[in-house]
Amino acid sequence: MSLDLTAAQRARAASYQPGDVIRYSRGSRTSGIKAGDYAVVQTAEVENHRLRVAARDGRAAEYDPRRLKGVQVFHEEPRVFAQGERVQIRLPDRKLGIANGQFATITALDSATGDATLTLSRGRQLIINLRSFPHVDHGYAVTSHASQGATVDHVIVNVDTTRSRELVNRQQFYVSLSRARHDAVIFTDSRESLPRTISRTADKSVALDAIESIQIRGRLSGTRLRPAMPIVTPREHINPSDYVQRPHQAPRMKA
After folding, report:
1. Alpha-carbon distance 217 to 203, whole Å?
2. Residue 243 has what pLDDT?
3. Contact status, residue 164 vs residue 202, Cβ threshold 8 Å
4. Residue 242 — very low, low, confident or very high, per pLDDT cuts 50/70/90?
5. In CA terms, which of 41, 101, 118, 204 is 20 to 30 Å from 95?
6. How far apart are CA 53 and CA 59, in angstroms?
7. CA 169 to CA 163: how far, in whole Å?
8. Of the candidates 67, 9, 69, which has an alpha carbon nearest to the alpha carbon of residue 35?
């Protein structure tokens, strides 16, 4: 499972925990890491900005995460698969020709070698090794965000009304229901709270919205706030006389 760390988080040793799995899309000669390698975090020294990792073949490496780019961080979770199961690809791979979020069905599985034969859309078949490419998950349920653009015959939607506005809102509910071609069934923890929960909006706010909210709370509480600094555009700093166009002067030529 991907930890979805930002670039700033990946550069901090404090973002890593022992047991985290790192995939390197770029190599490092100084650290002895090759592109495509996987390694497990052994220790993370926050004060010294150092990571100690161990690759699958036993190689050990130590480096400063601020100086190594092109990494992805995962948390390993066990999965049990069987022939006939529907799975979802969780990491794109250009060599294999698969995209992130793509669905497939396991048509053959060799538990001894880890090879799995997947049947993708339009009948295309692909053989992958689940040990060397472990980015496969069960594909029976997906998030509303991941389902955008898909259309299926039947949809089952789970709405937890205790979740935050960012997770359950009007837009999310619309996307979930509109995936269905024939029918949709809704499961929820509270029928009474469902209408209010799915009526919420999750519009992204900006800094000015936060400032206005703070000022409103200050007026309601009677707290005297410091006057806001005036916002001055660069044009207001320019003297109007600077806008006067100077007469064109022909370039001087030296003999």
Report:
1. 21
2. 44
3. no
4. very low
5. 41
6. 8
7. 9
8. 69
Q: Does residue 144 or residue 241 have the better pLDDT?
A: 144
* pLDDT for the residue numbered 211: 77
Structural tokens at position 128: 């992958």
**Residues 6 or more apart in contact with residue 60 via CB below 8 angstroms:** 42, 52, 53, 54
Amino acid type, 222: G
pLDDT digits (tens, 9 = 90+) for 193-216: 999 999 988 776 677 777 777 777
Q: What six digits make up the tokens of 83?
A: 């022939």
In one-letter notation, the amino acid at residue 101 is G
Is the pLDDT score of 18 beyond 80? yes
Spatial distance between the Cα atoms of 248 and 228, rounded to a whole number of angstroms:
44
Q: What does pTM read for this prediction?
A: 0.62
Give CA–CA dist 62/41, Å, rounded.
10
Taking the C-alpha atoms of residue 213 and residue 196, their distance in angstroms, rounded to an integer, is: 23
**Cβ-based burial of 37 (10 A; exposed 0-12, middle 13-18, buried ≥19):** buried
Q: How many CA atoms lie within 13 A of 46 on its CB side?
A: 6
C-alpha neighbours within 13 Å on the C-beta side of residue 94: 2
Of 82, 90, 97, whose CA–CA distance to 127 is shortest? 97
